[in-house]
Task: structure prediction
Amino acid sequence: MSALAATFRRDFALMLAGGGVLAPLGYFVGAAMLVPLAMGPERTLLAAAGPPLVWIAAALAVLATLERLFQADLEDGSLDQMLLSSAPLELIVLAKGAALWCAVGLPIAVAGAPVAIALQAPPALIPAIVASLGLGMAAFIGAGLVGAAVTAGVKRGGVLIALIVLPFFAPPIIFGAAVAQGDYVGSALLVLGGCALAAAALGPIAAAAALRLQAE
Amino acid sequence: MFSTFANPARFMAFSAWAAPLCAVAALALFAIGLPWGLFSSPADYQQGETVRIMYVHVPAAWWSLAIYAFMGGASFVGLVWRHALADVAARAAAPIGAAFAGLCLITGSLWGAPTWGTWWEWDGRLTSMLVLFVIYLGYLALWGAIEDEEKAARLAAVLCLAGLVNLPIVHYSVEWWSTLHQASSVLRSGGSSIHPEMLGPLMTMAGAYAFLFGALLLTNMRAAIYRRRVEAVRLRSPI
Amino acid sequence: MGANRPFREEPKLRVESLAVARGGRVIFEGLGFVAEAGALVELRGANGSGKTSLLRALAGFLKPLTGRVVFENIHEPALALHYVGHQNGLKPTASVRAHLAYWAGLLGGAVTGEDVSMTVGLAGLADLPARVLSQGQARRLAIARLLLAPRPIWLLDEPASALDAKGRTVLANVIEAHCAQGGLVLAAVHEPLGPSPTQVLSIGGAS
Result:
């Protein structure tokens, strides 16, 4: 088994073991539930403004998973072993990000379907919303890797990670919200794909640079 | 040029006279530019007298962006060559850039009240500037949260460079977003439609901001270096 | 453990005028030594003298202030080192078997987990999660890592901590076998490990 497959399997298993998948998923649904409570249940109003707010709930749910992502590895000595792997740290970080996407990003994208329906998104738009959430989650996680890596040594750094990562969330949210509103769905999906690719390529590089500094 | 000042002793000697010089130049340019812009330049045919806030607003926007780019350069040097002075420069520039971005947001909001009839308009440029302001806050917060100063400098440098990549992406997506939602399109601060007679005071003010930045940056850096020296002395001879 | 001397390249470690700083303070400077294949080097020194920093600098985690660390006769630098630090690198919810499988993948292991857990005395515990292991058993698991993937140079930071008498014997045997095979062991210790060291390196304190 290669270093990357081993990392992916281990991280995925660890996320499943701690019930770590249910918490962000529940957070996502719970945050979306607050939207009609704040806006009122009127269907026309919800239909006009509700669906893009799926993205706020999704962004919050991802943020909540980032704090321990590298902090645990730094504290328990796992990071040292990652540095000694024959595979470059960048790829190991990518594998960890992929595990997080599979364990958290994908379930949230799928759960985005019922949540968007509840927020009165037109049913014809649901497949596009799910696809856009899947891509957007990859972009969020790529940026989140950087935020998690630079704050790995900070105790109770959850708020700090959010502050650091939120500006990186702006572009995916803009294009994701466009999909949720049915504006330029095709091109917005393409741009989201670009965001996801850029984040998956650059995020691990920056995160690995930060983790090498953390190990000093 | 950088290698000349990389030596802290040489930097201290240089900044000892450069910092006050920058301060004097900034004061002089403000003394020319402010009255020129606020009183003797023409009012805008559309916006009237409110256009004058542009002389404070636009240079603040320019320099808050430029300072971030400067921090990116310093971060790169600090990361690659491990120059302590580059770390100090990036850290010293950040609060100035944040203050300029904040000033730009406040003046933008003030300008919006008579122009748009609201204290805050989600205009593309203002929104991008708000994102930049949040990036500055995150950078400063990260510095504050990490105790080991050397580590803080390196990690903040990684974050700064990541933000530098993010900024143009944010800028273009926000631009697209604001056209999508058709935010107020007629009135814009600055832009290419600027009256030639406004250019003189605007450039003077931009120069004043530049020297203000230089003076504050050098003073901040000197303070940081002095603080490190004090710490080093204390460490060697504990009281 | 197969052939008698699998590290035919005769790994050699040379350290030249090494200086390491932590948090803006120089911890040690001007450190130099040479360690040949088959050597067991014990690092001694008071707490805070920089034993851990030296090991981390040798592992490449810590950038030295000055000086250099040269590995000679190593064909694949990425596969040169094992490091066992203060932290065992364990995840509470993962089983012993899962840890061994993960490390084998991560570090390029060629040995099966069963053999290794037998050697370090963890046989029968394979399905237990790491959180139920005692401190000594957790340490044994970290030591098992050394045997999973053959790497010529071992950097051990107080490897005997939390180990009982049996565990120390296991550790001593493992180290002796590695040295006999032409491997190189550097260990920061407070008390002798058992096998007689070929070299004892005392690091002077900063104070």
